[in-house]
Every structure is written in C-alpha cells, then in structure tokens.
Amino acid sequence: xxxxxxxxxxxxxxxxxxxxxxxxxxxxxxxxxxxxxxxxxxxxxxxxxxxxxxxxxxxxxxxxxxxxxxxxxxxxxxxxxxxxxxxxxxxxxxxxxxxxxxxxxxxxxxxxxxxxxxxxxxxxxxxxxxxxxxxxxxxxxxxxxxxxxxxxxxxxxxxxxxxxxxxxxxxxxxxxxxxxxxxxxxxxxxxxxxxxxxxxxxxxxxxxxxxxxxxxxxxxxxxxxxxxxxxxxxxxxxxxxxxxxxxxxxxxxxxxxxxxxxxxxxxxxxxxxxxxxxxxxxxxxxxxxxxxxxxxxxxxxxxxxxxxxxxxxxxxxxxxxxxxxxxxxxxxxxxxxxxxxxxxxxxxxxxxxxxxxxxxxxxxxxxxxxxxxxxxxxxxxxxxxxxxxxxxxxxxxxxxxxxxxxxxxxxxxxxxxxxxxxxxxxxxxxxxxxxxxxxxxxxxxxxxxxxxxxxxxxxxxxxxxxxxxxxxxxxxxxxxxxxxxxxxxxxxxxxxxxxxxxxxxxxxxxxxxxxxxxxxxxxxxxxxxxxxxxxxxxxxxxxxxxxxxxxxxxxxxxxxxxxxxxxxxxxx
Length: 572
Prior knowledge:
Layout: H1 13-16, H2 20-75, H3 87-90, E1 93-95, E2 103-105, E3 111-112, E4 121-122, E5 124-125, H4 148-156, H5 159-162, E6 164-167, E7 170-188, E8 195-210, E9 221-235, E10 241-249, E11 256-260, H6 272-275, E12 294-296, E13 299-302, E14 307-308, E15 312-314, E16 326-328, E17 338-340, E18 362-365, E19 370-373, E20 411-418, E21 428-432, E22 441-450, E23 454-458, E24 461-471, E25 476-477, E26 489-493, E27 499-501, E28 507-520, E29 529-540, E30 545-549, E31 557-570
Parallel strand pairs: 10-12, 10-13, 10-29, 11-14, 11-30, 12-15, 13-16, 15-17, 18-20, 19-21, 20-22, 21-23, 22-24, 23-25, 24-26, 24-27, 26-28, 27-28, 28-29, 29-30
Antiparallel strand pairs: 1-2, 3-4, 5-7, 6-7, 7-8, 8-9, 9-31
C-alpha cells in the first residue's frame, strides 16, 4: 500500500527571528562606540589644539613684548647713534652737499666702513641665530659707560633681563636682533641755528621662547615678530605754501606752484626770463613738475586757472576763528592728489626787546641811494659787491653797543622805507649775512616797506620783522640767478596785519608769518616767489608763480620718538 509522506511543518515565525535583537544591539553598540570614540578623540584633539594655541599665543605676545622692549631701548640712553660729525667716518654715506652737508646712506642695510668688528659689513646688533654684532666702538651715555653692543646684549638678550613671568606656570624669555636699514641726518629746529640730528631706521626681530614654568629652561613654544622702527621727522618747510588756517589760489594761469633743486643750480637754469614764467616750463632747466605741495590745517581753495604741481594736503584743526574747511576747486588743478594730513603746529613768531624799536635807527632810501648794513661791514665774500663810491651807513643799526648780529644780540633797525627812482636810480639796501645756514646774521626790523628798488642779501640772513612788511618794488634778491638757494634768507613776521608782495616784487626766501595773511599778487613780468611760505592764511592771485626748492626739506623740522612703521610675524 502506497503511503503519502506527511510534509514537514515550518518552524514558528518567532523561532525564525530568534537572535536578531542581539545583532541589532551589537550594531548599535558598535555605532555608539565609534561615535563615543570620535567624540572623545575630537574633544581630546580640540583640547590639545586649544592648549597649543594658548602656548603659541603666549609665545606670540612674548615676542611682541620683545619688540616693545627693543623700541624703548633705542629711545633710552643705553643707545647712542653715530652723530652727524662721525657719519662719514663710520658709515658708507654720501653728503647732500652745500649748504647743509647732511648725510644719507648709500644703500640698505647700512654698511660700516671703519670702527666696527667687521669692516664693510652691515651694521647690526645680534642676539640669536648666529653671527655677531657689528656696531662702531661708540660709548653710550649711561652712568656706567659701556659699548652699545654690550649694552644691547645685556639688556635685550640676557634671559635674566628678558624673562617675563606671569605666575609659576606662565613664563618665557625673548632674544632680539636689530639691523640698521637706513641712516641719514636732518636738521632739527624751526629756524637757524639748526641742529644736525641722525635719523635711523632699524629692522627689529624678536624671538620668544615660552618655557611654561618660571624656573624651566625647556622650550615649549616659539614665535618670531618683526618690526621696522624709526623716528618721525616732519620738515618745517615741506610744502610750497601752507596755511595754518587756509590757502587760496586764483586768477590767471600764472598762479601756480612747481619745484626745483637748488643743489643743481638756480630755478630755470638761472635765466630770469624763465624764472618769471609760469610754472613747469618745458623749456626750462632744473624745473620739477611735482613735489610743490600746498596744504592747510583748515581748507584749500583753488580757482579754475590754477596749477599745483604736487599734492593738496588738508590737515586738522585750523587756528582759532578759522572757518575754512576741506578742499574746494577742481582736482584737475592738482597734479598730485588731494589727501588728508596731520595737524601742523604754528611755528613760533619772533620776539623783540621790550623797548624795541626805541633808540634804533631808521633808514629812508630815495632815488639812487645805496645803504650797506651793518656799517663798515666787509663785502669781500658777497655776491653783491659795493657800488663804486658808496659810503657805508654812518649810524650803526643798534639800539646800544651790544648788538653783533647774533640771535641773542641782533642788529636792530626801527624802520626801512625804500621809494622813488626807477631803473638805474632805484634805491638799494644791502644786508651782510653769515657764512652758513647754521651761522646766519640776525636783523630785528620794526617795519620794512619797499615801494621801489631792491634789497640785496649776501650770505645767510634772518630778518625778524615786527609790525609791517610790504614788497612791491624789485623785491629781495639773495642770488636767484646764482647757486645760492632760498634758505639763505629767512623772514619771520610777528605782526597781524597782512603781508603784501606784489608788482615786480620777486623774492627768494623762506617766509614765516603765523599771525598774518600773506598776499601774493600782480606778478606782472618779473614778480615771482622762490622758496616756501607758511602763514595763518596765504592768498595767491594775479599770475604770481611760486617755485619751491626741494632742498628746503633740510632747512629745519621736528623730530618725534621712534615708532613702528611696519609689522609682521614670521612663520616658524
């Protein structure tokens, strides 16, 4: 008998799924374990990163402290720069030539040619990284004299002096290198006599070593910072025209500024027909169509026919009562740019003896007269020899017997008036000057009015004028057509009434009138100004050109402390 097999029974469904929960739990635990491990790793990495960042930041700020300590050191009496009188002995420099004979380095970094451990090598003070200091054997002015290089090593590279400690767990020290990038000398002072002063540019590198513990010598982190430091020198005569309140230029196309370099000769090659021409003549020798800037603490206004061969600089904070503000006019009149500049402090006005001009002589020059001051002065070195038959002044230009032409005892004149005559009969006043801009001859004058004639100046002269100044004749000549430059004549005006320079009044000078308005106008065929003007207000019109001498940037200024002009962090 055939039997039919009984089919097997399928296992219950719950028996098929038995164990899946364990697998899911294991997978979940695996995922969670990976996530937990990732979280722990990330947290630990961030902790290490934060710790490393903290150490790096601490080292970075320590390097910044080294930079600041070095700046303070260069400001201190532990450092002594090479003076102007020794510059050519120690350094590879070139003189700017007459009249100031200042120096500027031939290249960067500055090369020491004598007096250093290694001649013909860069000037440097080294505290780390190999190499040695190379600085001239100049003693500083500290209480205990020592060489500059030794003072640098002791003050900026001895860990006992350079360690900075916050607490027992926060400490480190720095080492400093310094390389002399540039050396030059400038004249400091508003007017003669001037003091030749060195200006140095240093590249300072500070390397910080963070040790953590105050007693530890282990290097935990390092950082390096670099800074270029130098003093800020602001020349007194850095612009062709500067108004402590305002400058206004308008009128015909001859109202303009341009520049020249008196060390290369007179403006326009000494050709008077060119010197009286409008600015930036393409046919003139020694004419620069740039660098003759115009500025004001308050505002500058330019007419449509005006040309400024340089920048227009707007400072801040005009004088009391000044309403001028900003720039007004077309920028097409400015060959440079219209820029903002710092506030420029008024230069000092001249002072006079309490009873001046009582007792001082007055001079009134008419047709054909020639007056030489001081009386009996020798003109053997003058570019303006005495006219045949001229008798020197019969009265000495002094209030008493003490005057000798120095700044302490200037020649004193109550008034000078020049009028009458024309052509060959025009009156002439001849003022004898000193041999250099550092040793000029000083004249205190109550008032000066030149309606006709000419004032001739030999050598270097400073005119301090008290109450009134008017030039409308042939002007003041101090060698415009020769190699003598505008700094030969400095005019300081103390009055508040306006200064007038007009007609054919051609002047080569530096004019300082901090309390007054200087009016230039009516240039005609011969009127022009060579030099620079600084006054409360300056007004130029009627085709009167101003020719700025770039050498005037050496004719005095103010020196600030050393500051940082560039900053960077080196990658380690």
